[in-house]
Amino acid sequence: NEGETGVARGPAGLLATSKLILVTQRRGQSQILSGTCTYQLARHEDGLLIRRKTVLLIQNDEPQINLTFLP
Length: 71
Known about the structure:
The chain is an all-beta fold. The chain has no helices and 4 strands. A 4-stranded antiparallel beta sheet has the order 1-2-3-4, with no helix packed on it. It is elongated, with a radius of gyration of 15 Å.
């Protein structure tokens, strides 16, 4: 479901979902961003690798001051 977090198995490997709350400060302006991160993970000899990462911001229709920090 859209509001849930956790890990599930899928045809492409593991799919992990988490929530994001981030506060930035740049040139005297603060911004609070929130959203959902989705990771497609693959098993590797040392653990897990991130195959794909998607960040969906709740405020995706508003102007963003700075996006260079997105994890």
